[in-house]
């Protein structure tokens, strides 16, 4: 069963996690692929893709804030940043 909201979320996750540009959703091959996946999929613009990513980010940020606020004890957040010598990955 096709779910328009779920398809937008999946496209946003695909675009963000795999580091595709927002223009990807306007490319002919991407639109063709999505038309094969579901006849109900409606093409979106890169501007809509930006709005979707920001909306999903805000929801996830709020979810994490709620989880942290409910933590039974203190939390220490740390991070480590590294660069690969062979790629542009950080």
Automatic annotation (TrEMBL):
Membrane-spanning regions, if any? Answer: none
The name under which this protein is listed is hAT-like transposase RNase-H fold domain-containing protein
Q: Which InterPro entries match?
A: ZnF_BED_domain_contain
Q: Name one GO molecular function term.
A: zinc ion binding
Q: What are the entry keywords?
A: Metal-binding, Nucleus, Zinc, Zinc-finger
> What is one GO cellular-component annotation here?
nucleus
Localization (cell):
Nucleus
């Amino acid at each position: 069963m096709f779910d328009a909201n779920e398809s937008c979320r999946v496209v946003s996750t695909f675009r963000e996690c795999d580091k595709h540009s927002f223009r990807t959703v306007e490319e002919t091959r991407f639109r063709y692929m999505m038309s094969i996946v579901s006849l109900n999929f409606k093409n979106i613009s890169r501007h809509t893709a930006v709005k979707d990513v920001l909306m999903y980010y805000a929801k996830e940020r709020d979810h994490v804030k709620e989880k942290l606020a409910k933590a039974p004890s203190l939390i220490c957040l740390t991070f480590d940043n590294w660069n690969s010598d062979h790629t542009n990955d950080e």
